[in-house]
Prior knowledge:
With 240 residues, chain A is of the alpha+beta class. Helices cover 27% and strands 36% of the residues of chain A.
Amino acid sequence: MTPDPLHRRIYADLEGRILSGELSPGARIPFEHELTAQYGCSRATVSKALSELAGRGLVTRRRRAGSFVAQPKAHAAFLAIPDLRAEVMERGQAYGYRLLDQKQRGPDGGAEIELAAGGPLLALTCLHSADSVPLALEHRLIALAVAPQAIKVNFQSTPPGTWLLDYEPWTEAENRIGAVEADALTARLLQIKPGAACLSVERRTWRDGQGVTRVRQVFPGDRFDLVALFSSAHAKDPSR
Amino acid sequence: MTPDPLHRRIYADLEGRILSGELSPGARIPFEHELTAQYGCSRATVSKALSELAGRGLVTRRRRAGSFVAQPKAHAAFLAIPDLRAEVMERGQAYGYRLLDQKQRGPDGGAEIELAAGGPLLALTCLHSADSVPLALEHRLIALAVAPQAIKVNFQSTPPGTWLLDYEPWTEAENRIGAVEADALTARLLQIKPGAACLSVERRTWRDGQGVTRVRQVFPGDRFDLVALFSSAHAKDPSR
DNA sequence: CGTCGTGGTATGTCTAGACATATTGATCGC
DNA sequence: GCGATCAATATGTCTAGACATACCACGACG
C-alpha cells in the first residue's frame, strides 16, 4: 500500500527478472529511454535504479552499448565479523575476558617490522569466554606508532578488539580463516584436548596503508562457527 | 590529473574525514546546502555522494535532523567465495575434479525435507584437487523440485558448484564456517591423517524462499585458507 | 502540567533538460 | 580487402528547481 519510490520499484522489477532467469547473463536490459517510456518517468530515475543494480554487481553498464545482465562472477558474501564481546552478549551469554599477558617490545621479524612502522609493538594475549566456557584465545599485536593511545588503555578490563573498534578506525583489512590443530598450550587454555581441530581467524587491518593491528583468534572447532547470512538482493540497505 | 567526477571527490573527502577520525561516530556531517556551497555544485550532486556513503554504512541520514557519522556496528567484511574451479585455475594450478557418487533419493530428515520442497533430492559426492593434490571433499544436495534441470546435467565432467553458479541463481544464502576433525573416510580421500584439522564450509542457498542446494566442503586445514581482503572504502564498485 | 497540533527544516524523490565521453558501426580512402 | 575517420548513440555527470515526507520544537489548549 505504501507507494514505494519509483526507482525502487524499477530496481526490484529488474532484479526479479534477473534472479528469476528471465533475463539471463549477458542479456541486454532495455535502454534507459525505453524504461523511461515504460514507467513514465525521467531518465534520472531510471538511471538511479540501474546505478544501484550496477553497484550491486547485477548489471554492467557500458556507454553506447547499453546495460547488460552481469556474468555471475563469484559468490561474494558479506561476512559479519563483529566484536566478540558484542557477539557473545547478543546471544544472551555471559561474556568473560581475561588478559593473560601484555608486553611492549620491538618487532622480531619481517612481517612485524612492516606492522610496527618504525615503532614498538604492544603484544597482548587474552582469553574470551562465553558462560565461563573458553571461547577463543587471542594473540594481538598493536603498532604503537600508529595507535599510540593504546599504551594508556587498561586492557585488564577492556578487550583490545572492542577498544580498537571504537577508537582506531581502519581502511583496509584482510581476514584469513583456516583450521589448525591445537598445540599443548592452546589446548590447556581452551580446555580441549591437544590436537583438536580449531578455527583460526587471523585479521590484519591497515589505516591509509599503515598497519594498525594484527590478531589471531583460535576457537575450538566444536564451539564456534562463523556464520554469514546474506542475500544477493543485499542486506546492507538500512531503509529496507 | 584525470578530473574525477565531483560526487566522487565529495564522497572521498568525507570518507577520509570519517576514517581518519576527524569526524567521529555520531558527529554531524555538514548539511547538504553547506556542502553545496562548499563545492559549488547542486544539491543533487552532494546528495549522491551522501547516498553512497549511507549505502556503505558510513553515515546515517535522517530527515529534518541531517546526516551523521554512523556508529561502527560490526566489521562487515566482503568474503569472496568463488567457484572452486575458477579459484584454483586463477592461482595457476591444474584443477582436477572427480565425481565419487551420485544418486537420487528422497529427503531423509527434517532439514532435508525443507530443502527438498516436496520433490526428490540429487545427492552428489565429489572431490576437487589442485595440481593433483586433493583440495576439498564436497557433499552436495540439490532440490530437484526447484532445479529440475539438474537431472540432465552430466556431473562426471561438470562440478555441480560451477553448474549451479551459471544456471541456478539464488537470492539468499548462508555460509557456516567451522573446523572439524577428519573422519576416516574423509582422511583417506583427502590423503591426510584421521583426526587432522579441516576447514568445513557449509553453504545453503535459496531462491525466493525455496531451498536450492546445500553443500558441505571439507578442506585440509594445512592446504587451504579462506582469505577475505577488503576495505571499508569497500571493493564492490567496479569503476575503481 | 501535560498533550496535541502546527510550522519550519532537512532530506527523499523526481523532472526536464544540458553537455561530456566512450564506443559502435558505417563510410571513405588506400 | 583493410584500416582510419567520423557520426550516431547510450550512458555519465550535472543543474536548478519542485513537491513530498518525516521529524523536532514550540506554542496553545485542556
